[in-house]
């Protein structure tokens, strides 16, 4: 980890920060979830850096990246597209968690010819919300960010430990630091149904999820619908995990991801 590089790349109306493991290896781009930052992938990057040049992006409004514009809707797909281009990445594997997985899916749907494989960790494949529901969610998010940002990093770590007793202690420092960096306006609003963001992905895609009873957003029915819409998609359920699949059953998650990454390119 000491050799990881940090930097920024220009994107429309701002810049994205990143950390990168480096090396002459195939690129793997990681996009984090809401209120996280790129270094929330550190355990995963450590596990994969012998095989991949792992690029951990800070999404706009998160980590050290530029803040969202007050006048223009945030376009995470454009940000990812421009970051991949600016970094000169050739045929990267694209991987994301939560809203980062949703952005990764939409990017892959638009740019399949430029990528190798896709991994989606518990994306919010949910029905579109109406304007009132979206506004209420945004307000609730702003209030939650305000509560967190009134706390110290140590207090947030303690909160994380109590909320998520099954997480590895190694995951908590970056998770807590990210909460103090997130912009209160970073909550995404979706205007496209999720089904229209996966139907044209033409490379092998892994949809990895937990159990709805533990908080996973992907139910067996949603996983089945995704696979029926696109034969390139395979689903893997990680037992005993919820929305934060890799944090809640890291060993099984990593095994599923590595098996998928090492499998031949042509499947599905």
Descriptive account of the structure:
The protein has 268 residues and is an alpha/beta fold. It has one domain: 3-Layer(aba) Sandwich (Rossmann fold). The protein has nine helices and eight strands. It has helices at residues 42-48, 76-86, 99-111, 131-149, 153-163, 172-179, 220-229, 245-248, 250-262; strands spanning 5-11, 14-20, 27-31, 53-57, 93-97, 117-121, 205-209, 233-237. Strand 1 and strand 2 (14-20) form a beta hairpin. The chain starts with a strand and ends in a 6-residue tail after the last helix. The model has no long low-confidence stretch (mean pLDDT 96).
Report the radius of gyration as a whole number of Å: 17 Å
CATH topology: Rossmann fold
- Major beta sheet summary: 8 strands, mixed
Number of helices: 9
Strand content: 15-25%
Which shape, going by the Cα principal axes?
Answer: globular
Helix percent reads 25-40%
Query: Strand tally, please?
Result: 8
CATH class: Alpha Beta
Unreliable segments (pLDDT under 50, ≥5 consecutive)? Answer: none
Strand order of the largest sheet: 1-2-4-3-5-6-7-8
Topology as a string of helices (H) and strands (E) = EEEHEHEHEHHHEHEHH
CATH superfamily: Alpha/Beta hydrolase fold, catalytic domain
Instruction: Give the overall average pLDDT.
Output: 96
Q: Do you know the CATH architecture?
A: 3-Layer(aba) Sandwich
Distance between the termini: 35 Å
* Overall structural domain count: 1
Strand-pairing-aware structural class: alpha/beta
């Amino acid at each position: 980890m000491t050799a990881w590089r940090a930097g920024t790349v220009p994107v429309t109306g701002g810049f994205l920060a990143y950390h990168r493991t480096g090396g002459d290896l195939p690129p793997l781009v990681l996009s984090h979830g809401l209120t996280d930052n790129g270094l929330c992938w550190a355990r995963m990057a450590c596990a994969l850096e012998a095989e991949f040049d792992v690029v951990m992006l800070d999404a706009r409004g998160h980590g050290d990246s530029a803040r969202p514009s007050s006048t223009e809707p945030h376009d995470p797909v454009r940000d990812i597209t421009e970051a991949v281009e600016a970094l000169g990445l050739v045929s990267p594997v694209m991987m994301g968690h939560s809203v980062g997985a949703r952005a990764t899916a939409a990017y892959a749907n638009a740019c399949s010819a430029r990528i190798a494989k896709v991994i989606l960790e518990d994306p919010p494949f949910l029905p579109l919300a109406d304007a009132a529901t979206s506004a209420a969610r945004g307000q609730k998010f702003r209030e939650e960010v305000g509560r967190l940002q009134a706390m110290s990093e140590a207090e947030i770590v303690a909160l994380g430990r109590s909320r998520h007793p099954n997480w590895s202690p190694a995951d908590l420092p970056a998770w807590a630091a990210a909460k103090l960096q997130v912009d209160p306006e970073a909550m995404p609003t979706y205007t496209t149904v999720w089904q229209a963001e996966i139907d044209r992905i033409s490379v092998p895609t892994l949809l990895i999820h937990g159990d709805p009873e533990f908080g996973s957003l992907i139910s067996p029915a949603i996983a089945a619908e995704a696979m029926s819409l696109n034969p390139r998609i395979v689903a893997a359920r990680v037992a005993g995990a919820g929305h934060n699949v890799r944090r809640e059953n890291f060993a099984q998650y990593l095994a599923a991801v590595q098996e998928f990454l090492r499998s031949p390119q042509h499947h599905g």
